[in-house]
Structure prediction request, 109 residues.
Amino acid sequence: MKDKDYEFEKLVASMQPIIRSILRGLHIYKNHEEYYQIALISLWRAYQSYDPEKASLTTYAYHYIRGSILTELRKQIQKDEHEHQPDDVGWNQIANETADNESDETWIL
Prediction:
């Protein structure tokens, strides 16, 4: 098991430039660390499922990593489209409505 772990560590070191290239090519600057971790997890999965008869490990890992990151980006876009994030104007409206409602209330003790 330790040989396989050591082998994977060497693979991670050799794939660093490729991972950075994928992230740069997809213009990932926001949440960079999160997508870097996704790339490492994808590299591990590619390493586990690799079949040497089909392609080189580097080629297989490149496409596996890139595909996983694109899938995650699609999920994030869908999530962002379904969630509404109020801007400063929206927060001011909410604050004003809350203040108006509080001033209208009378407290009976």
Notes: The CA atoms of residues 94 and 109 lie 28 Å apart. The helical segments are 2-25, 32-49, 57-82, 88-104. The first helix runs from residue 2 to 25.
